[in-house]
Give the backbone structure.
Amino acid sequence: MRGLWNLRALWMVVAATCVVSPCFGQSSSASEEAKIRLRSVTELAICGESMPEDSVKAALRLPTNACTATTDLKSDDLLPERIPVRIIESHSENGNRTLDKRSVEIRGTDGHFEPYQDIERETLTVDTSTEKTTMRTFARDVNGKQSLVQVTEEEKHILPGDDSNMVRVTYNPDVNGRLQAVQREIVETKKIGEDLEEANTTVMLASINGGLAPAFKTHELRKRAANDTAETEKTTWLPDVNGKWQLSEIRHNTATQGAKDRSIEERVSRPDAEGKLGQISRVVSQETESTSGEKRSVVETYSIDVPGTTRDSSLHLVERKTSTESSNSTGERATEQRIEQINPGDPSSVLRASVLVDGKIVPELSGEQSTVTIRARDSNGNFGIVSVDTTKADRIPTVQIQQTPPQKP
């Protein structure tokens, strides 16, 4: 049911981040993992599908034991341009076939909800080593007629020795409605040691010359070390004007898992104009859990790009995100998040709070009632409420369909 939060971030968190910095602009901070992510309504996450989340939404996500839900996203009209949204999700299983659906409706000018987008994901387990997935996205034209806007087909094979390969192709309709391949992704994963594996990915996009052409490729090494430590090194190449592969980025990630804590450090290096490789960012995350069950997360982002200054090739602390999560005996969960950032008007000063997010979710007999309040600093330095968003989800369990062969006469 995590998808119920994905759309909320699109129209709820954007409101806060737009006050702090230009909307949808590329941040100079190092890692997207350290940001409040802007979700797309095309992400499909039903009945607990695993997807990365911002910590507030992750802590408040709805339970995953329900497979049908209708959720109304409402606002306090602080931002009247935000259109109320309704999401209907369902999950069904029939033998080796699984079908997930999500419909998004928006309120029209007459006050009634109108269909906006429909997404269907069908997964077929061919055998123990083969799985095929097809995702279809439908939109509505000006007349309200449903039309297919995108199809993604994925086929994954598990090979001997826990190796695997996956091919994912995305199609968009042309002006005549015929589906044309616009992206092809190939991922090959191979175990090359007892605690070491590699993954090679190639992504091809539509070329101006027709067909698909390689757009970038990555090589990732994953190693499990001692003391519950996992290390990854991901290298990305891009083609130059002559089609030759050039190094674009190297990303190192080290994660250490403890009994009640976890630490993650990510370092990103890129070549400069002269081709010399240098570190451009560093993100340090620390997660802890107290004996009472309260969880705390601190993510600090360091970057060579500091708003309001020019580069000096040194890493500077540009953002700190602190999140807490707690629950009580009745099952209520509460989260708090504080985002501190550089003040572009005084970049040499300490970080100052720019966004505050408070959330609470209360279980009910038929679903959940949740509230998220976002406050952001305005141009005068004062905090104002950007959004008070309330969601009520009513969950209806679905029944798995069992196929039985017909009886012989």
Remarks:
- The chain has one domain: 3-395.
- The chain is about 5% helix and 55% strand.
